[in-house]
Amino acid sequence: MKIHTRLNLFGLAMMAFAGGCSKNESPAPDKTQPAASASSQTTGAKKHKGTPDDPYVIGMSQCNLGEPWRAQMNDDIRKAAEKHPNLKVIFKDAQNDSLVQRSQLEEFVNQGVDVVLISPKEAAPLTEPVAKAFHGGIPVIVLDRALLKEEYTSFIGADNVKIGREAGKWVAETLGGKGNIVELKGLMTSVPGQDRHRGFLEGLDLKAHPGIKIVFEADMQWLEPNARKEMESALARQPKVDVVYAHNDPGAHGAYLAAKQVGREKQMKFVGIDALPQEGVQYVKEGILSVTFQYPTGGAEAVDMALKVLAGETVPKKVTLATKVFTHDNAAAGGQAIP
Ligand code: FRU
Question: What's the rounded Cα separation, in Å, for the pair 37 and 41?
Fold first, then answer.
């Protein structure tokens, strides 16, 4: 108990030194989520003083850097951390390999980082390594892709079931009760892929809309080239496709390119998720996608939270980020928030 109090006081002093972190408050933490109990949280045995001469070290393991959304997350982390001279971030790129990502966690532990951030590729292979680091006393903040157990300090991400459900409702309304859908799924060993699929089916409500059919579905593993290939197969088999629902914008764009190649892109609407300004939102403005749903990276929020954890503050076990919808009508005005 005494130790805990001392850590808190030390942490608060460090917070004051760092100029606090209120600038990076999470935009829309879900207040309905219970806060972590003190016992499920670790402040960790800090390895660094948290001064400009001996900054706190955050280890960030990114599952890959091949997609613009991931580069954006790292940029958001970098920019938020730059505001704090008492913080240093070490970035590692797991190159879309869960085993590599596992060993990166071990390296961070051996290296003596103060906090680990991880955006895991897949749930199953990374659940135990994250739990091990956490139980070993290192605070771990998981970003964007959930794990199978909640043995970490906190999870930050948007609600993928809700995003999928909104996409499903949009498609059902747009089709007016009749039409053929191609669904290009994200990696189905990652939780966002599973949730975006489940939510979509809920929003689509096929029982209430017997004229709507999912005529082709495939796992494109979040990757544009895969989506393009899968869409080529879908088009070869299906003479009539009305909507393509892809679990991310690169997937929707890949599908668009496949349809364009055979001159069919105007016969169908493309729905994506992520809404990066330079990617999905731009596609919407250009009329390539009809709609995209924002999936915020949570990078700035993660840095903010790491500072709080280092200051000995209790943080919520889960932070749910808000989402927005972008259509041709509202994209220029910055999209519309989904309550
Ligand atoms: C990037 C990405 C995003 C997607 C997220 C889901 O790797 O595929 O496009 O929204 O991961 O975890």
Answer: 7
